[in-house]
Design brief:
Number of strands: 0
Structural class: mainly alpha
Number of helices: 5
Distance between the termini: 25 Å
Largest sheet: none
Radius of gyration: 19 Å
Strand content: under 5%
Order of helices and strands: HHHHH
Length: 137
């Protein structure tokens, strides 16, 4: 999960290219702070639950995956929200910069991306939840 967190932070920080210095500072601080907090918390939970000493199946059987899932789920939702907010801000900035007829294409991108997110985020949420919480006996 550390690799996915670093990929998320890197991708999100790439979206900040071309923004104002103040926006980069605040948004980049939020992204990097949340990523660092998540990684540190994840490692602490793994050490406390014996992830590195127990076998993977034994770790799951003792219910520690649920403990990890309680930590991961809020950060997943936070990450999705931050990512979508930054994408929407970037698209709306492009819309406001344009003065010709093509400016409405940027607004259409916002609608398409948000509509796509309405369908894909619940699926991703189910996948993340399925990794940590047992749904079947």
């Amino acid at each position: 999960m550390e690799i996915f967190t670093l990929l998320f932070a890197g991708l999100t920080l790439l979206l900040l290219i071309g923004t104002t210095k103040k926006f980069k500072l605040y948004t980049g601080g939020i992204v990097l702070g949340a990523a660092a907090l998540f990684i540190i918390g994840e490692i602490i939970i793994k050490v406390q639950t014996g992830f590195y000493t127990l076998g993977k199946q034994e770790w799951y059987n003792q219910g520690y995956a649920e403990t990890m899932g309680k930590w991961v789920m809020p950060f997943f939702l936070l990450g999705v929200a931050v990512f979508l907010i930054i994408v929407n801000i970037r698209m709306i900035q492009q819309f406001l910069k344009r003065k010709d007829g093509i400016r409405w294409v940027w607004m259409a991108f916002v609608v398409v991306i948000d509509a796509f997110a309405v369908f894909i985020v619940p699926v991703l949420l189910f996948v993340v939840a399925f990794m940590f919480f047992p749904f079947a006996p």
